[in-house]
Write a structure and sequence with these properties.
This protein is of the alpha/beta class. The protein contains eight helices and 15 strands. The chain binds zinc ion.
């Protein structure tokens, strides 16, 4: 019975646990969804609208209605707005925020729905870690506790910068820069916090003021992901940024490829598809 052998192989192959990392195609904005090896669901930013919920519905197992951790890197609309709608469909256990509070409507709506769901709010700084499983954790690289965030001219530079680490046979790291610019990159370099990573979510949608040559040299990503919408009015990604990234990394763009997904096996081998 060749058919049943094939079906069995298919079933066993499907049940091998791997971490899934999706950079969603949600137009101009950031939205990343990670299903960890241990089956936790993590959402980092939500894009500008309900496109996020559609994408999440396709990527998450249909029977799973719980997001263990939601992270808002900073409260600009292209990151926060889509997150509000998520609460209508999922239980969100924990919401990770930067220390500064804002008074834009979408941000306030997010706090209100989180409050209704009794979601735990966690404010993070450099050095904080979030354990995701036996092999997996987030490390917060920014903001520093001593940074006066309200004095910064650019709210983008209040972005939470996170690194996801998988401590497997071949260790893997994913660096998520939010919309941080050179100002933050320079501080991370000076603080000695930059390490070689495998996947870089490029800061600020590939703007020319992020991803300096020094920063790219230090992070050495194999893949650089740019979350930007087709035909966006900001000119993201900038040609100069693309030129700086190209010699080091394979650049993958949501505006060209749609949703970009990585599958990472427990031993650290990984592959990318879109
Ligand atoms: Zn943005």
């Amino acid at each position: 019975m060749i058919w049943s052998v094939a079906a069995y192989w298919h079933w066993t192959n499907q049940s091998v646990a791997s971490a899934q990392l999706h950079f969603f195609d949600i137009g101009q904005g950031d939205a990343m969804y990670l299903r960890t090896l241990s089956g936790k669901d993590i959402l980092i930013d939500g894009g500008p609208d309900r496109l996020l919920v559609n994408q999440l519905g396709q990527a998450m197992p249909f029977w799973d209605r719980t997001i263990e951790i939601m992270v808002l890197t900073h409260p600009h609309l292209d990151h926060v707005a889509g997150l509000v709608e998520v609460f209508n469909y999922y239980q969100v256990n924990q919401l990770v925020l930067e220390p500064v509070q804002y008074n834009n409507a979408a941000y306030e709506a997010l706090l209100a729905v989180a409050n209704q769901q009794h979601t735990t709010i966690q404010i993070v700084h450099t050095g904080d870690t979030i354990t995701l499983g036996p092999l997996e954790q987030f490390t917060v690289l920014y903001p520093f506790a001593e940074t006066n965030l309200t004095a910064l001219k650019d709210v983008n530079d209040t972005s939470i910068v996170l690194r996801y680490d998988l401590a497997s046979v071949q260790p893997r790291s994913v660096l998520l820069m939010g919309d941080a610019t050179q100002l933050v990159e320079d501080q991370l370099l000076q603080a000695g916090l930059m390490t070689d990573v495998d996947i870089l979510k490029v800061g600020h949608h590939g703007s020319r003021y992020s991803s300096t040559a020094d920063f790219i040299q230090a992070s050495q990503p194999e893949y650089a992901i740019i979350q930007s919408g087709a035909g966006n009015s900001y000119g993201h990604p900038h040609a100069e940024t693309l030129a700086r990234l190209a010699p080091v990394a394979t650049v993958l763009r949501n505006d060209q490829l749609g949703t970009i997904t990585f599958s990472i096996q427990p031993d650290g081998t990984y592959r990318q598809y879109y």
